[in-house]
Design a protein that fits this description.
Layout: E1 10-14, H1 25-34, E2 39-45, H2 60-74, E3 79-87, H3 99-102, E4 107-111, H4 121-133, H5 138-158, E5 163-164, H6 175-185, E6 188-192, H7 200-208, E7 213-216, H8 229-237
Parallel strand pairs: 1-2, 2-3, 3-4, 4-5, 5-6, 6-7
């Protein structure tokens, strides 16, 4: 890799057989080591995901934690992080992984997914059904955009979320409003290597709000762990500097000292403090 390219040191977004991935925790770790990464996050979907996509129940995160600790002892050249990709399950920003579980994790991701069971029928309609219909109706899409953004902002401000995953994938959002909330909360926005939905314009708008970013693979099989090519190319086309990417070599925390993946947050409980890019 040329020296002037963005170098990603940690893949914080990978899935395993504990949700709907195809590899084990150890297989993802081995793949990350083969890519020369310093850290890998095991971040399986929360239990509200439908059709077997999520973990069967919250106890699975304890099982994952046991496996990550075993891998940490076995492979001492890489940091293995226990995490979750929680689902936003209400317009009020509730998550399907409670804060008492999140507090035991090393990395917390959260995002809007359309194939989920909401807290209530109304939430399921708003976050799942309406977002599906919104693809075919501009009127419904405008209403969905407002409520999607509200749900994301509420989640970010209420919970210790390190990274918002694939913002705008299959759902309409207000980029400026979400990015501003994330900047205030010390939460990064993901540039996802597994989905080609994001455009340079998103990065340009979000960056102006002071938010930081995270480049991830969203790997669902070991072979894709650490596959950042598409995401890095997008970031570089948008002129994004490594100093704004929390898991990149050259990242600098410049907007505060309260902790969190970006170091600029106002929420003292978001204190995972990743340091690979410093």
């Amino acid at each position: 890799m040329p020296h002037d390219r963005i170098e990603i040191l940690a893949d914080l977004h990978t899935h395993t057989v504990h949700s709907h991935g195809r590899g084990t925790v150890e297989e993802n770790v081995l793949a990350a080591r083969a890519r020369g990464l310093k850290a890998v996050g095991i971040t399986d979907h929360g239990p509200a995901s439908l059709f077997g996509v999520g973990v069967r129940d919250l106890s699975v995160y304890d099982e994952i934690s046991h496996e990550t600790k075993e891998c940490t002892l076995k492979y001492q050249d890489i940091e293995v992080l226990t995490g979750a990709e929680a689902n936003i399950v209400s317009l009020g920003g509730d998550l399907d992984v409670p804060d008492e579980v999140l507090s035991r994790l090393d990395v917390v991701l959260a995002g809007l997914h359309v194939m989920i069971s909401g807290n209530t029928l109304s939430d399921t309609w708003a976050l799942a059904c309406r977002n599906f219909i919104a693809r075919y109706s501009a009127i419904i899409r405008r209403r969905a955009r407002v409520e999607n953004t509200k749900a994301l902002v509420e989640a970010v401000m209420r919970h210790p979320i390190d990274v918002v995953t694939h913002p705008g994938l299959h759902v309409s959002i207000d980029t400026e409003e979400l990015a501003l909330a994330c900047a205030r909360a010390g939460t990064a926005l993901e540039i996802n290597g597994g989905h080609p939905h994001m455009e340079e314009a998103f990065i340009h708008v979000a960056r102006k709000q002071g938010v930081d970013f995270c480049i991830s693979s969203d790997a669902h099989e070991p072979a894709r762990v650490g596959d950042f090519g598409r995401a890095i190319e997008l970031a570089e086309r948008a002129g994004l500097d490594a100093a704004r990417i929390v898991n990149a070599s050259g990242y600098r925390q410049t907007r505060g000292s309260s902790g969190g993946v970006t170091g600029g947050g106002k929420r003292p409980h978001n204190n995972h403090g990743f340091i690979w890019g410093r």
